[in-house]
């Protein structure tokens, strides 16, 4: 390091000593300490970010009160570098100079090309960055370096040639090859660094990868640690060739952790990140805290099983060029005949079926190794002995979990989901879970022993849910729920069907409310304007109810877009009719 850089760092260290005060009794871990000081207004967000950068690139240069803390090994420095890039112009000139030095490419004396000439692997055999010296095949290249070459070639075969993701942009630094630097990284598995911005809309970058020189300090060690890291970081390098938005980082990490398991399925390191994901309910889907987003990789495991393919990931990144992460996923799912809201609801439902509840054929193939929701993890446990209502709120794209027990041994677990994807605003939604013994109400799901239940919300179809009914004999059934409004029949006149228009790719059902004063058999028909019968149902009831139509014919086929007519009749009397606009 030159004398100017040393002088700058001395000034930074002095500055931090002046403005910061730390008591080791308050916290022992570096990340927790920094976050705590931000919350206590002892440290600004920007200075905290700078400290994290020092901890990643040059931990030996941290002020003493930080260097003595415990450093948990972090999975990936990509998110941190993204935050640095997004905020670079806000740092002081002194901090910017230090960051410029940190973000510069490593300078290592040796390099080797992969056999396909796509990768240049940089390394040294001297000092703290030295790779292990073993050279069992006497080629003059350390075995570890040759293993890195093989790993990168393997990653390219899977991620680009098999899945169909785009090549990363060539960087043209000492050749067009993609560069991998092997260094001693004390606190991380590895990271992908932003190098040169090629365009702003979409934001495309050249990049390079830095990985550890031995993986003896990481939970997954040695060659296994190296291999999953190269798979992870190469996907980040690919991602930077599509479009980088910092708000999409959660999905970029989901994909990169999932990719580790696609290529190195035998390692299963992703399971180590599931505890934080399962420990706390009711968090936005795009939560990014250095842990949660890694556990959220099971979203891609969920999609892989639902879509019976790994190739969906290339379609998502094609959409990311023009659309933010959740919209990109939604468009991919609409191409497959579903949508983000419905799949998110099922996803949260699947997450209840892990551990001892796992069904590895129907749900996650490795779900028996996942953490399991315990009673202490649930948002509530209730005993149902009479009409009961519980109300709560759920954050956008979040879910809550409740178990209701009946004295006959039946239990009901409901997972309400706020499917509103406007997750950057105050869009928490209130819902209710109601139980009644009145079979002539709008409570349309039967539980047991004369008890009915429903999921209600003023937000209507924004709240969805999955319900699991477990019988005393341990048999069970799973239901998909759309919330209905509790005021549906209180307004003057019965409302028309909703939603209308009925968009098949976005809505599970069109609901047609109806009320009978006296018990009688009622027939509902869906017909074309020319009178051709599309679907029908018959039932006997009294009081308010809701007919639901899923947009399919009596043969189970989705209808075409157009105008349809519903007709509700009793005997020869037409009691109600109206139009439904269907969009397919």
Describe the protein.
The structure is a single chain. This protein is an alpha+beta fold and 584 residues long. It folds into 4 domains: 100 residues, no CATH class; 193 residues, Orthogonal Bundle (Neutral Protease, domain 2); 116 residues, no CATH class; 82 residues, Immunoglobulin-like, CATH 2.60.40.4070. It has 15 helices and 20 strands. The protein has a 6-stranded mixed beta sheet. A 5-stranded mixed beta sheet has the order 7-9-10-14-15, with helices on one face. A hairpin with a 2-residue loop joins strand 19 and strand 20. Helix 1 packs across helix 6, helix 3 runs parallel beside helix 6 and helix 8 packs across helix 9. The protein is elongated and about 90 Å long.
Instruction: Determine the strand fraction and express it as a percent band.
Output: 25-35%
The fold-level CATH name of the largest domain is Neutral Protease, domain 2
CATH architecture of the largest domain: Orthogonal Bundle
Q: Report the structural category.
A: alpha+beta
Mean pLDDT: 87
Count of DSSP-assigned helices: 15
Tell me the helix content: 25-40%
Q: What order do the strands of the largest sheet run in, or round the barrel if closed?
A: 1-5-6-4-3-2
Any idea how many domains? 4
In the predicted model, the low-confidence regions spanning at least 5 consecutive residues are: 1-27
Which outline best applies?
elongated
Rg, Cα atoms, Å: 28 Å
Total number of β-strand segments? 20
The major pleated sheet works out as: 6 strands, mixed
CATH class of the largest domain: Mainly Alpha
Distance N to C terminus: 63 Å
């Amino acid at each position: 390091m030159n004398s100017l850089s040393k002088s700058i760092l001395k000034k930074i260290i002095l500055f931090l000593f002046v403005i910061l005060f730390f008591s080791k009794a308050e916290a022992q871990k570096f990340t927790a300490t920094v976050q705590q000081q931000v919350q206590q207004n002892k440290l600004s967000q920007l200075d905290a970010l700078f400290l994290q950068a020092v901890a990643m690139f040059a931990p030996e240069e941290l002020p003493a009160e930080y260097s003595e803390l415990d450093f948990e090994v972090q999975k990936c420095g990509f998110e941190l570098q993204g935050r640095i890039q997004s905020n670079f112009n806000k740092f002081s000139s002194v901090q910017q100079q230090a960051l410029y030095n940190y973000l510069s490419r490593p300078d290592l004396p040796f390099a080797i090309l992969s056999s396909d000439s796509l990768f240049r692997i940089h390394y040294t055999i001297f000092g703290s960055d030295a790779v292990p010296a073993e050279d069992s095949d006497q080629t003059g290249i350390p075995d570890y370096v040759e293993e890195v070459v093989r790993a990168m070639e393997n990653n390219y075969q899977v991620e680009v040639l098999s899945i169909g993701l785009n090549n990363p942009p060539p960087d043209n630094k000492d050749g067009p090859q993609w560069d991998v630097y092997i260094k001693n990284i004390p606190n991380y598995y590895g990271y992908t660094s932003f190098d040169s911005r090629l365009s702003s809309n979409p934001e495309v970058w050249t990049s390079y990868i830095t990985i550890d020189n031995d993986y003896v300090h990481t939970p997954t060690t040695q060659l296994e640690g190296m291999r999953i890291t190269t798979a992870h970081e190469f996907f980040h390098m690919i991602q930077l060739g599509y479009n980088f938005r910092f708000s999409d980082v959660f999905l970029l990490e989901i994909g990169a952790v999932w990719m580790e398991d696609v290529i190195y399925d035998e390692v299963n390191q992703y399971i180590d990140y599931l505890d934080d994901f399962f420990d706390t309910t009711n968090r936005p889907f795009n939560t990014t805290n250095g842990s949660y987003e890694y556990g959220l990789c099971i979203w891609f495991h969920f999609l892989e099983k639902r879509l019976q393919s790994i190739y969906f990931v290339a379609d998502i990144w094609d959409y990311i060029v023009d659309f933010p992460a959740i919209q990109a996923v939604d468009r991919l799912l609409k191409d497959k005949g579903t949508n983000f809201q419905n799949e998110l609801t099922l996803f949260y439902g699947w997450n209840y079926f892990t551990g001892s509840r796992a069904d590895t054929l129907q749900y996650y193939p490795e779900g028996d190794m996942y953490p399991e929701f315990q009673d202490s993890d649930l948002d509530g446990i209730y005993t149902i002995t009479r009409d009961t209502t519980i109300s709560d709120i759920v954050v956008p794209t979040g879910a809550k979990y409740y178990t209701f027990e009946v004295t006959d041994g039946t239990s009901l677990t409901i997972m309400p989901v706020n499917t509103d994807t406007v997750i950057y605003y105050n869009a928490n939604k209130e819902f209710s879970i109601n139980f009644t013994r009145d079979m002539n109400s709008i409570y349309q799901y039967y539980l047991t022993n004369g008890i009915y239940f429903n999921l209600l919300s003023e937000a209507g179809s924004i709240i969805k849910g999955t319900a699991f009914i477990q019988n005393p004999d341990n048999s069970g059934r799973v239901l998909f729920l759309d919330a209905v409004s509790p005021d549906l029949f209180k307004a003057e006149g019965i409302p028309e069907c909703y939603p209308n228009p009925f968009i098949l790719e976005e809505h599970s059902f069109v609901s047609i409310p109806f009320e009978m004063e006296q018990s009688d058999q009622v027939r509902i028909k869906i017909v074309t304007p020319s009178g051709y019968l599309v679907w029908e149902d018959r039932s006997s009831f009294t009081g308010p109810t809701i007919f639901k139509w899923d947009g399919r014919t009596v043969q189970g086929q989705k209808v075409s877009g157009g105008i349809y007519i519903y007709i509700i009749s009793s005997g020869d009397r037409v009691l109600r009719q109206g139009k439904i606009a269907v969009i397919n």
